[in-house]
Amino acid sequence: MIVLSTKDIQLSYGIDVILKSITLNINEGDKVALIGENGAGKSSLFKILTKEITEYEGDVFIDKTKTLGYLSQKSTLDSSLTIHEEALSIFQHLMDLEDQMLHLEEEMKKPYDEAHHEAHEKAISDYVKVQEDYDLLGGHTYKGEVHKVLRGLGFTDEEFQKQVDILSGGQKTRVALAKLLLSSPDIILLDEPTNHLDLQAIEWLEEYLKAYRGTLLIISHDRFFLDSITSHTFEMIQGEVYTYHAPYSKYLVLKEKDYEIKLKAYKHQQEEIQRQEEIIKRYQSFNREKSIRAAESRQKMLDKIQRLEAPPKAHSPYKISFHNEIESGTDVLMVENLAKAFEDTKLFHSLSFHIRKGDRVALIGENGRGKTTLFKMILNEVKADEGEILLGKNVTLGYYDQEQSDLAPEKTVMIEIHDDFPYLTEREVRTYLGSFLFRGDDVFKRVENLSGGEKCRVNLLKLMLKKSNFLILDEPTNHLDIPSREALEDALLDYDGTIFVISHDRYFLNKVVKNIFELKEDGLEHYLGNYSYYQEKKQNPLRFDPQEVPREVNKTKAQEEKKKKKGREKDLRERKKYLKHLEATIEAKEEEKESLNQALTTEEVFTDIKKSYEISEEIGLLEEELKDLYEEWETLLATEEDA
Is residue 205 helix, strand or coil? Predict the structure, then answer.
């Protein structure tokens, strides 16, 4: 059953078209990812759905029997309340019932008086009714639920009594998210819900939303989060929305296939139109009555064709490429028995580790544990209480600051780059800025007027131009859209230097890093793998690392392993045989579909609406069949690769 839909939503500000034609349908229980590059109009669509924006064209339908909750990037809270009071306010109706029950209990405790028999009986019956309502609405569990959600989102019991007005922006966002989850609406709209959450809180939120039985529409650049929760992906490109019934990773595959199919159909139609136009020109060149009539007839048929548009593709992000001018020695960073505390807060002690040339290391840990402080200590901006930090021979540092504090707010983008790299000519600076999407008058924007994403681009360009051999990156994917994150990941994969990074982006961590350092108060734990390996190792500490496998295996185990190997080889042969059959079937179906697409471009068909419709229906059925075949093929292929 559809609970939310839009039809031909259009939104413009002057000549700027934000939403061109947004038509979508969301069924009850759907969990949908809304993705697209920064500026694609995702937040604007949310504001239309929540009636924050009312000046638009088109229609919006939201089931009147459903409640809707919205977490925007800007939330308003009562600054006079504590965190706990603000969260409890969601259950004001239950607290009112508690007050009623207390009042009625006082009435029932009064000595029985025959003259007030009716009032006494009414107090008893009212108490029974109020208590039933209280029990039915969750009166005995709501306080525990408040504690569970606040703790899950990273608040300690001591922080519950903090007043909202002294909280950071990130903490306020977490309180607003807690209130939204506790209100448990039928439809939830979330705009970047993982911002300001540490990894533990993100994982908790994932589990919470997986168990949520309502309808979800989520804007997020956190691809791991989307893969874990959503079953549908809606992509916004150039003011339009394209729907895929698949989570993020599968959507990538389907999108590429869909694009190729649409591009092929568009090219075929363009070739056919060109062929018809050449025939028309040839007829016209004969300059005879019969040939002119033939040309006019063909032109009329050509005018009736429903022209396909070239399928849109998200804009290619700026190109990033990291290089180093000089190579470092084998030892890049050595830390011995490091300790740091601020007043009564101990961040860590007994911290020792060693990073070597070419290592790609992620530093993770709970918020407030001192990850950024450790980076500042490596940069010699914060002094250690104890211990030693040594940089290796020929190590040149490049630092990416998530707070962008190294940017001068009063400078223009052009001057910011030129001041740091005075050897570059103005033309070279403009060229570099252009490759990072600062074009025309954009180079004269003051830094203080830039968006979070634009500041990221400036800092990444500075990092690229510095050509360091040791990159220290503090949350480099914050404020970046998905295409930009992918460009950064590809650049880091091609980089031949050493990387030490703090990130909550698990997709990024899986793709880029090879070692995980988990920072704790008494030092750190080292995991020899990416984030998924770290998760598996945490859940199953007895799992062997490659280095931990025993050298000797007894004969019985060896024989058992030999039998298993033969069984696996037999299964593998069977899978390969079926895989070939499946690929042949897919190829035949693709050829059949291609033949039907060709038929659509023939004069006989494109002038006959009924035939065009019938063939389009056949193509639609084939596409559904192919989708299932491709999914089976991908699953089988993945199983074969694992084997």
Answer: helix
pLDDT digits 0-9 by tens, 217-253: 999 999 999 999 999 999 998 888 999 999 999 998 8
Residue 352's nearest CA partner among 502, 525, 545, 513 is: 525
Q: In terms of Cα–Cα distance, which of 159, 168, 160, 228 is closest to 199?
A: 228
31-35/232-237 β-pairing: parallel
Neighbours of 375 (CB within 10 A): 22
The phi, psi pair for 29, rounded to 5°, reads 90, -5
Q: Are strands 16-27 and 2-13 parallel, antiparallel or unpaired?
A: antiparallel
The residue among 72, 145, 134 whose CA lies nearest residue 105 is 134
Q: List phi, psi (to 5°) of 430.
A: -60, -40
pLDDT reading at 157 higher than 50: yes
Q: Look up residue 541 and give its DSSP letter.
A: T
Q: Taking a C-beta distance cutoff of 8 angstroms, is the pair 62, 214 a contact?
A: no
Residue spans of beta strands (DSSP E) within 509-631: 515-520, 523-527
pLDDT per position as a tens digit, 292-335: 888 888 898 888 888 888 887 766 667 889 999 899 999 999 99
CB atoms within 10 A of CB 521: 15
CA atoms within 13 A on the CB side of 561: 6
3 state DSSP class of 483:
helix
Chain-centroid distance of CA 353 in Å reads 32
- How do 397-400 and 470-474 pair as beta strands? parallel
Identify which of 74, 624, 609 has the alpha carbon closest to the alpha carbon of residue 306: 609
Quote the CA–CA distance of 162 and 110 in Å, as a whole number.
40
Determine the Cα–Cα distance for residues 226 and 32; give it in Å rounded to an integer: 9
For 262-330, what is the HEC assignment? HHHHHHHHHHHHHHHHHHHHHHHHHCCHHHHHHHHHHHHHHHHCCCCCCCCCCCCCCCCCCCCCCCCCC
Q: Which residues contact 33 (CB under 8 A, 6 or more apart)?
A: 218, 220, 226, 229, 230, 232, 233, 234, 247, 248, 251
Residue written as token pair 């290089």: 323
Residue 57: burial class (beta carbons within 10 Å; 0-12, 13-18, 19+) = exposed
Give residue 550's pLDDT: 46
Burial class (CB in 10 A: 0-12, 13-18, 19+), 527: buried
**Counting Cβ atoms within 10 Å, is residue 514 exposed (0-12), middle (13-18) or buried (19+)?**
middle
Average pLDDT over residues 329-343: 93
- Distance CA(375)–CA(378), nearest Å, equals 5
User: How far apart are the C-alpha atoms of 286 and 208, rounded to whole Å?
Assistant: 74
The β-bridge partners of 465 are none
